[in-house]
Amino acid sequence: MSEPSSPEHEETGPEDKRQRQLDFLDGIAENSVAALLDGRLGWVAWLEQARRHGRYGFINTLLIPAQRPAATDVRSYDDWLKRGRQVLRGETGLRILSRSGKPRPVFDIAQTDGAAIEEAAPVSTAEGLARLARLTGDLGVYLDRGQGWTYLGDPDRRLSIAPELEDLKAATLLAHQLAHVLDAQGRPDAANLDREPCHGARRAFADSVAFLLLAEAGPPTGHLSFSAPRSWAGADERANAAGAVRLVGEQVVRTASRLRYRLSKLQPVDPAAAVPQERTSIQGKGPAKSRRSKQPPEPGVPAADRPRDEMLAAIEDAHGFFVDNLAGSWGASYLARRGFTANVQARWQAGHALPSRQALVEHLRQRGHHDEAIVAAGLGKLGVDGELIDFFRDRVLLPFRNDDGAVIGFVGRRQDSFEGPKYLNTPDTVLFHKREVLFGLHEAGDRLAAQGVRPLLVEGPLDVIAVNTVMPESYAAVATCGTAINPAHLNALSRHTDLAARGLVVALDGDAAGRAGAVRAWRHLIGITGPVETVRLPTGRDPADLLDNPGDTDVHTALHSVFPLADLVVDDTLERVGRTLEFAENRLAAVRAAATVIAGLSPDQAARQVARVASRTQCDPAEVTAAVASAITRDPPSDLAPAANDFPTPPDLQPPPSPCESPAAARPPRVRRTK
What we know:
This protein is an alpha/beta fold.
């Protein structure tokens, strides 16, 4: 039975729908990563998905096939129009995640009709090897195939491949080495690769990039084989094997996309004159230019492919610009009114983005930063007129930092009287993934290791600053800043503190949304073996009030009055499913719904919740215990067991005798439906 609509559901806003959609897509991605790890999704099968859809990023190589396994070429509605094709009426788009982390629709070519798409002509292995040799020179790397020349350049910019190797093996080895050249470490394997091959995750990464690069260049890929991800991701239960698979997958897609992009910009070449005979610079600066082979200037490297150091430098200069502009701005006055003194503002290096469209862009250009780096770092975006404009305008800004303390992004607050989102994060970049970073984690890192200090999860950056300023001996506060807590956040937190020993306290705002957020966080926090607790903040109050109203002790007292988060989750379940708990059927449904929550708890926590549920529902503790046991063993419910979401009102049938039926609940055999 489906649940009828209710005012609560009708009032669900677009932001809630978007968040549910994001949670759904995240679930698909997590399941697909797990499938890669346990072998349900073969690595080669995933590489085929990456070959088709890699330009959209690693996560989308998992999301697209999960929605349409036969998809071969997916594009947006407008992109298909530009290619002379029209999306068929009634077709539903596949949901992928944009670089900013927002869902957007794309359509497979099979969902369109129109002009035929010209397919690339087949390329021989010799031609493919020639293209890879050209690519090597284009990357500023010297390819040594026994030409007999003396190489005087950087040893790390030289690739040696024996001239006697057949074309397919040479192309495979070259593609493997090019993956290492573009890797963060930038060091290819030793020349005697056949005798000293790389191994583990490094080998999986390079061979996977080689697979994708060969598929683009022309040579076949069927000869490549791969070890099971479990063998290089880690079999130890303490290892984050799924995280390792995801990291390698992201590196593979990112590196292969860069190489394939550069390869696509090369003009066709005669294979007979390409590999050893090409006039390659002895200094390792790439192929010598000729009038015949001279190409037009290459456009800027795609934003996601800018070197990390280049982006970090742009962000550092931007941060200095923001900090310099804070004094005298409305932002400084706003923070001061909230109790954040000039010293607090300086300690947290708050800044202010000017309201003009290109203030930061022009500043960074004067500092020598390229437009591509400005976009890649999340500092600029294209306006409707095609001009590069500032991403943050007229906002108070606070910096996100990585584990090394480098600024990687910002969170900005608008003025109360202005429109738009109250808080705005840096868009997702190579450096900044808002679903993986915690505001304040670097600043609180030292105190997280101190005796007696517990990690505290709050909602926003001002909450973080207030708690860490007023209660440094009790809490080290961090915030997700607009996203729900997830395993990536917990992994980041666990690098700084022992969650098994100290647990975690959740202190979201004292309103319905804050309570709902705490309940939603439970599914990710239940795996923490340490005490997971929460607080009950006064209605309409938040931790930032510690500085806003320093004489008011209500928030301070609430933050010291912790209780198990499981209490809140169980109570929410009872109220949501059982409503007023007036009828026996409601109480029985509430007990069974709560039992599914209790089933995931440790024995000592479960015993506490059984007693609480029995007391609230007026049921015998033995019946609650039986419901929990049934939930743990996954016994199927009886025919008369109402599902939690299927019975908003009592069912129209005669219930069986139950300890949940108290004399106060006695009534005629037929149950009157309530309106």
